[in-house]
Every structure is written in C-alpha cells, then in structure tokens.
C-alpha cells in the first residue's frame, strides 16, 4: 500500500514553489496525495508568484512553474477533501504537509479552529516508532 500525504491548504494564496516542488517529489516517492481545504475546493496558489514582475523578482523559477503546471494537470482528475466534513480525519495519512505562502489567504488554515483540532489530534501520533510525519515549509 502506498503512503498517503495530505496537503492541508487554504483556497488561495500558497507559494507555488512550496507546493509544486514537494508535490512532485512526494509523487516520485510513491505517495498518494490528497488536497485538503476548508470546503473541499481545489486550492490555487498565489498567481503573483507565477507571472508578471513579482514572479520575475521574487517568484517561482521556470522549473517550479513547470512543476506547478504539471500539478495543476493532475488536479483536474482529483477531488479535494474538506477539513470541515464531519467524517474527515487526518488519521489515514502518513504525512501532513503544510506549504507556506505570503498571500494573506493562507491564514485560512492558520486561523481555523477545525485545523487546530485536527493537528492537535494528529501530532501525538507522530511519536516514534510511528511512521506518521508532519512537515511544513517556508523559504523566507
């Protein structure tokens, strides 16, 4: 059975590099990946990091943009899950991944009492010898 990863994300605003590069690597490593958002909508990354002047100065590299575009293609055949669904649990996942971002929309994850409850429940399950892991990234 393949390991499972949950990308816990806001509807909009995550850094495309901090999402697509790990997505690509986890996928290469054989992970099944689910995107988890508040209402079960597929997340969208910060468009400013993909095009225009901001992209040229601070944004994603060509390789990261290519990986983001490939991830978006994969997303067309996926269905996001909702962290507010009464039946939703992080228990089936081996890895909970939290990508970062500078866009103010990412606070949707940070400010949610539901994600707080889910993480408080999950985090003790990462104690070794468990194979469960929590990972976050921010490339400041």
From TrEMBL:
SUPFAM superfamilies for the chain: Class I glutamine amidotransferase-like
Matching Pfam families: ThiJ_like
Superkingdom as given in the UniProt entry: Eukaryota
PANTHER family: SLR1854 PROTEIN (PTHR43068)
UniProt protein name: DJ-1/PfpI domain-containing protein
């Amino acid at each position: 059975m393949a390991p499972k990863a949950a990308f816990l994300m806001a509807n909009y605003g995550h850094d495309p590099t901090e999402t697509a590069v790990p997505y690509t690597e986890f996928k290469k490593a054989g992970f099944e990946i689910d995107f988890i958002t508040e209402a079960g909508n597929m997340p969208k990354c910060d468009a400013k990091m993909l095009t225009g002047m901001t992209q040229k100065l601070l944004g994603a590299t060509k390789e990261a943009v290519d990986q983001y575009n490939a991830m978006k293609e994969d997303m067309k055949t996926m269905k996001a899950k909702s962290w507010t669904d009464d039946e939703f649990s992080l228990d089936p996942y081996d890895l909970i991944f939290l990508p970062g971002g500078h866009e103010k929309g990412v606070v949707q994850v940070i400010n949610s009492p539901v994600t707080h409850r889910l993480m408080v429940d999950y985090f003790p399950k990462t104690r070794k010898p468990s194979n469960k892991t929590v990972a976050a990234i921010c490339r400041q």
